[in-house]
Specification:
The protein is about 75% helix and about 0% strand. It is built from five helices and two strands; from the N terminus they run αβααβαα. Strands 1-2 form a two-stranded antiparallel ribbon. Helix 1 packs across helix 2, helix 1 packs across helix 3 and helix 1 packs across helix 5.
Length: about 200
């Protein structure tokens, strides 16, 4: 009998894809905590540690290339404070019975009540433009921090794209399930001879 060997290339590809996904999500989170409030209780998890490590790599990069690492260190401290505040806020809201999705990426600070722009539009377009603008403004002062913000905004765009694709897939699955149930219901009516 033929024993099928697992495809090692496929497993390696999946592991690399998973690591890339975690890195992108962590890097995106490092600026989302500055841009959003009221995160879901489980949104800031392991990727929070990944973001801390990525910021640490940029701090080392600063020192190795003669740049002042203090702005990156201040960014790291501010990030850690905001992560702690976001986690405490999520815990407090959960204890009070808040029904927000546990993996919710937070409400943008830039969203205004009765605004014409939706939350999704702000997250996909406005926030990246704002962060790129900030990176451009500080690039003369501290290139590593500006570079980090550019990398982080790229990851934010990638994270938003992945979330949109995932949601689109879920919506398509729901549509398929409704279509399947309509077909089953029609066959059931035909089987019983119901014609209405």
């Amino acid at each position: 009998m033929f024993n099928q060997q697992p495809n090692q290339g496929s497993a390696i590809g999946q592991n690399v894809g998973s690591l890339l996904y975690i890195g992108v999500e962590g890097c995106a989170l490092s600026i989302e905590v500055f841009l959003h409030r009221h995160f879901g209780a489980r949104y800031i998890g392991f990727q929070g540690l990944v973001a801390t490590a990525l910021i640490g790599v940029f701090i080392v990069f600063c020192g190795d290339h003669g740049h002042d690492p203090r702005p990156m260190i201040l960014f790291l401290v501010a990030y850690l404070v905001l992560v702690a505040c976001a986690r405490l806020d999520a815990f407090r809201r959960t204890m009070r019975g808040d029904k927000t999705h546990s993996r919710y990426s937070g409400t943008p600070w830039l969203i205004k009540p009765n605004a014409r722009l939706s939350e999704i539009t702000i997250k996909k377009f406005v926030e990246p433009i704002v962060v790129l603008g900030i990176a451009a403004l500080i690039s003369d002062y501290n290139q590593p921090l500006a570079a980090y913000l550019i990398v982080a905004v790229s990851c934010l765009v990638g994270s938003n794209l992945r979330a949109a694709m995932w949601m689109r897939g879920r919506v398509m699955d729901m549509n398929d399930a409704v279509a399947d149930q309509e077909q089953v219901a029609q066959q059931f009516r035909d089987m019983r001879g119901d014609h209405f």
